[in-house]
Amino acid sequence: MSTLRASVNVTPATGRPFLLYESDRASRALETLGAWILGVLWILPLLYAFWAAFHSSADSTHFTLSAPWTLANFVHAWHAAPFARYFLNTVMLVTMVLGAQLVLVTLAAYAFARFEFRGRGVVFALVLVQLMVMPDVLIVENYRTMTALGIKDTILSIGLPYMASAFGIFLLRQTFKTVPRELDEAARVEGCGPLATLWKVYVPLARPTYLAYALVSVSYHWNNFLWPLIITNSVESRPVTVGLQVFSATDQGLDWSIISAATLLSTGPLLIAFLLFQKQFVQSFMRAGIR
Amino acid sequence: MRESGSVRRSRGADPVIAWLLLLPAVALLALFTHYPAVANLVHSFYSTPRANHPSTFIGLDNYRNLVEDPVFWKALVNNLWYAFGTIPVSIALALLMAVWVNGRVKGRGFLRLAYFTPTILPMIAVANIWLFFYTPEYGLLEQFLGWFGLGGHNWLGSRDTALPAVMVVAIWKEAGFFMIFYLAALQSMSPQLAEAAAIEGASRFYFFRRVTFPLLMPTTLFVLVNAVINAFRMVDHIVVMTRGGPDNATELLLYYIYEIGFRFFDSGYAAALTMVLLAILAAAALLQFGFLERRTHYQ
């Protein structure tokens, strides 16, 4: 850390006692050790699943390094449940939710950031209510609503409650407010209406925020479980999280190798995407966290 | 925000356009956030519709049942323990992780990856892994403890250890997520502060305690509110690992709502239970908007 480097570099130069320098070095070594122990502990469950998934169930619980590696568990899992269909459902779900969110959130954030109208504060407060009272909690009533609308057990019904996102509106409103008003006025002088101004001035300037929001949204909806579990009831609409649960709860007894393989399979695309774009992921989550 | 006169004049139709822009988002929010919250309150005063008995007004009967339901109290107390156990530990670990990863620790790329990976994976999937991890006899934890002659536990099957065991999973999942917020805050801090402190001869711990930590207070409060929400929202791993058992030892509020509403199909009672959860979340909201927003300035 910068504090650390500074103290190590500066201390001898300012003639501080050697002892302080030494103890700083000792504490630094201790911290490195702690950081690594924690890191290994944190990654251990995943390594464990990895080991089990690539070994036969007989070998999965002993850690003999010479045990033969196998892909049979993946093949078995892939054929035992319609994972291809589950993946398709999840991809359709996250695409649909993100697409709708981007449009709705952009329009609403623009209205909150750059328009004056009576009741703006009240409406904004009402929007922010969703930050606390999320669709995740209102499962009983939303199930009733979906039944009334006749769209139970569809991908649309999984995504619909999440499409107007208070988090997205808040995030984008903050970004839009930083856009210089001169740009807005220049666009209007050139004859742009509100929508054209939004599209040509605000949206391009907010690109990093959009990326951040998109990554957070995709990983949220890829991972979401309880609401999809409740509202779906067929292979045609189940996302991969629910598919995985149905698979491991009913079919497999206690064959951990196959369950581990199915688990890795269902998280694979997200995990690979994360490993490839690690920096962007972390930065996006950071950007989404700073308000 | 104050607009200059000329800008306002040039947008004569402003309010109408603004409302049109807001309409789609506000309509969906009203339908899936505000309406269900209100409808839930109304339905909590009605009986659950059954085949030959339509829903009737029963006043506070659902709430009377709730007060007399030992499982509800168990779920509420469990959830409070769950919150008190997971929130401080995951926040403390998150802060520690952020300080380490922000620093010059060897291999910090790997460490950041290790800390953060649980966050992006579905809880439902990692719960499967943890279920395996906790398995009696064969699980990694039992094998490891067995080497020291400490085996023989059924972590998820025993009333005393099941709740702590699922709490560990929640901490593991969340600490990396909260780390990100701290990391963002640390990176926006001026390095000159640290240099000045070092020249003054302040120890690094002293500097952390007197400078870094106070400056991170807004982040801590923000993370705290998120942690409270998550403590009452995140029950995916309960579905996989324990189903509320053994003997309701891991019953949490939202999981109980799910069981009552969708396994026993008692929607009236589930509505009353949901009101309790909403009250808790509303309290958290008031805490944030009343107290925290005044003390926390982002710009």
Q: Secondary structure elements and their pairing?
A:
The complex is a heterodimer of chains A (291) and B (299).
Chain A: H1 2-13, H2 18-53, H3 72-80, H4 83-114, H5 120-132, H6 139-149, H7 155-159, H8 166-177, H9 181-189, H10 194-205, H11 207-223, H12 226-231, H13 240-250, H14 256-276, H15 278-289
Helix pairs in contact in A: 1-2, 2-14, 3-14, 4-8, 4-11, 4-13, 5-8, 9-10, 11-15, 13-14
Chain B: H1 5-10, H2 14-43, H3 61-68, H4 70-102, H5 108-120, H6 123-133, H7 140-147, H8 162-187, H9 191-199, H10 204-215, H11 217-233, H12 236-241, H13 253-262, H14 267-295
Summarize this entry quickly.
The complex is a heterodimer of chains A (291) and B (299). Helices cover 75% and strands 0% of the residues of chain A. Chain A is mainly α and 291 residues long.
Total number of distinct structural domains of chain A: 2
Q: Mean pLDDT across all residues of chain B, rounded?
A: 84
Oligomer classification: heterodimer
CATH architecture of the largest domain in chain A: Orthogonal Bundle
Report the sheet with the most strands of chain A, covering strand number, pairing sense and barrel closure: none
Structural class of chain B: mainly alpha
The end-to-end distance of chain A, rounded to whole angstroms, is 24 Å
Instruction: Give the chain pair forming the largest contact, with residue counts.
Output: A-B, 106 and 117 residues
CATH topology type of the largest domain in chain A: MetI-like fold
Give the proportion of residues in helices of chain B: over 70%
Helix content of chain A: over 70%
- Estimate what percentage of residues of chain A fall within beta strands: under 5%
Rg of chain A (CA only): 25 Å
